[in-house]
Amino acid sequence: MQLYNKLSAEERRTMIREAGKERLTISFYQYARLGNPELFRNHLFVAFDNLEVLGRIYVAHEGINAQLSIPADRFMEFKNFLDDIYFLKDIRLNIAREQDNESFLKLKVKVRNKIVADGLNDETFDVTNKGQHVNAEQFNALIEDPNTILVDMRNHYETEIGHFKNAWTPDVDTFRESLPIIENEIKQHKEDKKLVMYCTGGIRCEKASAYYKHKGFKDVYQLEGGIIEYHRQVTEKGLENKFRGKNFVFDQRLSEKIGDEVIANCHQCGEPCDTHTNCANDACHLLFIQCDSCKEKYENCCSQECNDIIQLPLEEQKKLRAGHYNSNNIFKKGKSEKLKFKKHV
User: Fold this and answer.
1) Which of 78, 265, 320, 343 suits 129 as a labelling partner, its CA being 20 to 30 A distant?
2) Cα(157)–Cα(141) distance, rounded to whole angstroms?
């Protein structure tokens, strides 16, 4: 029985193009108590592989978090499979507004300690005791209320290219880092302010809303379905769009256009730009914002130093990478002294 991906990204890309099928990019999550995540993980892999599903799925004792690409003509098969799982029946599926057949090129189903790393070790914290979900119309009304504190629960490289009007966007690298910073900043308003949160698809707010309720905040709300669902609702219902810029997404697309406004700038020249790229130097691979002119000038690299390296023969590049620990550059997405015009949000 095959339980792991065996094809390279390029092999899969070729298969997708030759098949000529339209694919849908979908995300969903659910907090639930799973007794045997490993067994559930194997069950998912076999089923998803048979359904030609690609993507990144995390399974843990606390539930499931999935970002997927599926053939459009197999959507109902996929949904029926989920509906046969008791805690996933009628789960909300966030379908991307902008589709890309190559948004995912591998199927990865991984068991994790948690589906969202939070750094918490509080046994009394109940993630299912969440805040009140609100739709786009309710959310628009809430964020105009002077008694509302609106918090973006995403990371700095996400909020830099897009966020809601009047939102506080903490300059953080990770979700776990944001929790205590936000609590400390607004703890004096536990009783007198409405705490409203949003994120990409809802999963981080789901946990954060439960955490802040646990910490004593009385009036806690979250945008149901996150920015993805908000975009769908304002488009289909003709509501005012209060989101500025693009929505960062965690697949090959890197972003979805929500409005026409460009609120970020190229990290290399400072010109208006909101397109992320990864440095072409495999020893760096830094995620940063790069305009078309700088992309051509530096050949998809974050600096002239990295551009010089990619000109070397591959064997020379491998020798330079040998023994070096580079994950700090990758982890600190968009934060590097090489980036002259990095904007802190």
Assistant:
1) 78
2) 27
**Rounded Cα gap, residues 183 and 328, in angstroms:** 26
Distance CA 10, CA 4 (A): 17
Q: Is 244 helix (H, G, I), strand (E, B) or coil?
A: strand
d(CA 259, CA 243): 7
d(CA 266, CA 296): 13
CA distance readout (Å), 310 to 20, 61, 126, 235, 294: 33, 42, 49, 43, 16
- Which of 293, 304, 296, 246 has its CA nearest to residue 269? 293
How far apart, in Å, are the Cα atoms of 61 and each of 29, 73, 113?
Answer: 13, 32, 7
Specify whether the CB–CB gap between 211 and 129 falls below 8 A: no
Q: Strand, helix or coil at 179?
A: helix
Contact 286, 333 (CB under 8 A): yes
The single-letter DSSP state of residue 302 is S
Catalytic residue, candidates 199, 205, 284, 294: 199
| Single pTM value for the model | 0.81
| 3-class DSSP assignment, residue 282 | coil
**Which among 167, 213, 211 is positioned nearest to 190, based on CA atoms?**
213
Report how far residue 204's alpha carbon sits from residue 206's, in angstroms, rounded to the nearest whole number.
5
| 3-class DSSP assignment, residue 146 | coil
Read off the amino acid at residue 165: K
Query: What is the three-class DSSP state of 74?
Result: helix
pLDDT digits (tens, 9 = 90+) for 63-92: 999 999 999 999 999 999 999 999 999 999
What does each C-alpha distance from 132 to 93, 280, 315 come to in angstroms? 19, 43, 55
pLDDT digits (tens, 9 = 90+) for 196-207: 999 999 889 999
| Spatial separation of the C-alpha atoms in residues 277 and 245, rounded to whole Å | 17
Nearest in space to 25 (alpha carbons), one of 332, 253, 187, 289: 253
In terms of Cα–Cα distance, which of 161, 183, 174, 196 is closest to 288? 161
Strands 162-164 and 255-257: unpaired
- Amino acid 274 reads D
Active site residue 199: yes
